[in-house]
């Protein structure tokens, strides 16, 4: 039986990565959209050559890897350039994500993506959505401590992400991560048991 796909998402500082890591320890195959996005522009990949053709070698580090900060500066100045980049990368990223999810041998697999709610194409790839939720004050506190960045910078990131209410509107399951790590692990294990039972139902959850 093909595994069914769970989408896991949450805002910055929500503990999404910690939750995903514990699912992985429980043996659940997962694909991280951010890692896939980095992989498709690795040296030697066709997408990087196209990007260099468009923007020049100034957007490369000395070792030939993509200078993400330089590229971001270019595309955010010009909406047309950002659109060109998205049209190049998004189909490649979706193809790689699908291929990686197809390798799953666990009863269900997880697509971890901070932009799951914002991307209709990514939402179509999953059958159930788990949102790791946290009060905004805690998001700010955790992110400022973790990244050593000022509050206004974290608020700017929050503004760019989907509103908390929008994420919750799409959620089938919500894990409120406002306690310690042991509690988070317990909640992940509880949800894991639920997801295994969903897979075991006679009608199944197949792709």
From TrEMBL:
InterPro entries the record matches: Depp_CoAkinase (IPR001977), P-loop_NTPase (IPR027417)
Chain positions recorded as ATP binding sites: 13-18
GO MF entry, a single one: ATP binding
Keyword Ligase: no
Transmembrane segments: none
Keyword hit for Kinase: yes
Protein's pathway: Cofactor biosynthesis; coenzyme A biosynthesis; CoA from (R)-pantothenate: step 5/5
EC class of the enzyme, as a word: transferase
The reaction(s) this protein catalyses: 3'-dephospho-CoA + ATP = ADP + CoA + H(+)
Chief location category: cytoplasm
Keywords (A to Z) from UniProt: ATP-binding, Coenzyme A biosynthesis, Cytoplasm, Kinase, Nucleotide-binding, Transferase
GO CC field: cytoplasm
Compartments reported by the entry: Cytoplasm
GO biological process: coenzyme A biosynthetic process
EC number: 2.7.1.24
Function: Catalyzes the phosphorylation of the 3'-hydroxyl group of dephosphocoenzyme A to form coenzyme A.
Family of this protein: Belongs to the CoaE family.
Name the UniProt record assigns to this protein: Dephospho-CoA kinase
Annotated source species: Geopseudomonas guangdongensis
Lineage, top ranks: Bacteria, Pseudomonadati, Pseudomonadota, Gammaproteobacteria, Pseudomonadales
């Amino acid at each position: 039986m093909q595994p069914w796909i769970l989408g896991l998402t949450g805002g910055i500082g929500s503990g999404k990565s910690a939750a995903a890591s514990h699912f992985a320890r429980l043996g659940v195959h997962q694909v991280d959209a951010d890692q896939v996005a980095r992989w498709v522009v690795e040296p030697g990949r066709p997408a990087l050559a196209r990007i260099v053709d468009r923007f020049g070698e100034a957007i490369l580090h000395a070792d030939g890897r993509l200078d993400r900060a330089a590229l971001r500066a270019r595309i955010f100045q010009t909406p047309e350039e950002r659109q060109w980049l998205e049209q190049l990368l998004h189909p490649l990223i979706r193809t790689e994500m699908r291929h990686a999810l197809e390798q799953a041998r666990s009863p269900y697999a997880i697509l971890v993506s901070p932009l799951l709610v914002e991307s209709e194409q990514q939402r179509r790839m999953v059958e159930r959505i788990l949102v790791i939720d946290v009060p905004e004050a805690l998001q700010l506190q955790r992110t400022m401590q973790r990244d050593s960045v000022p509050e206004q910078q974290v608020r700017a990131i929050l503004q760019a992400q989907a509103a908390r209410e929008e994420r919750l509107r799409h959620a089938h399951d919500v894990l409120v991560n406002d306690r310690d790590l042991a509690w988070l692990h317990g909640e992940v294990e509880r949800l894991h048991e639920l997801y295994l039972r969903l897979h075991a139902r006679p009608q199944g959850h197949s792709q």
